[in-house]
Specification:
This protein is an all-alpha fold and 83 residues long. The chain is 87% helix and 0% strand. It contains 2 helices and no strands.
């Protein structure tokens, strides 16, 4: 087998591997993104709960501030649709 045929064969195999790996990578990125977003919103929740009572999670104030615009948009949309 000459070099050109070997390179062509390798390209065919790698193309299939690239497609498979892209699917795997995408799924893993989705899993990690969901996990990290969930963590952010949970921390914001802790901040809101603690602001009423114990103030144990003061470090989560910045996280709450970062997600507040998203919360506001969702609430405004919900209240606008229910009026």
């Amino acid at each position: 087998m000459n070099k050109a045929k070997l390179v062509k064969l390798a390209d065919e195999v790698l193309t299939d591997v690239d497609v498979d790996m892209e699917c795997v990578l995408r799924k893993q990125l989705e899993i990690q993104l969901c996990e990290r977003l969930s963590r952010k919103f949970n921390q914001a929740h802790y901040h809101l709960e603690d602001s009423r009572e114990w103030k144990k999670h003061k470090p989560y104030e910045q996280t709450y501030i970062s997600v507040k615009p998203i919360l506001d948009d969702c609430i405004d949309k919900l209240l606008g649709e229910t009026k």
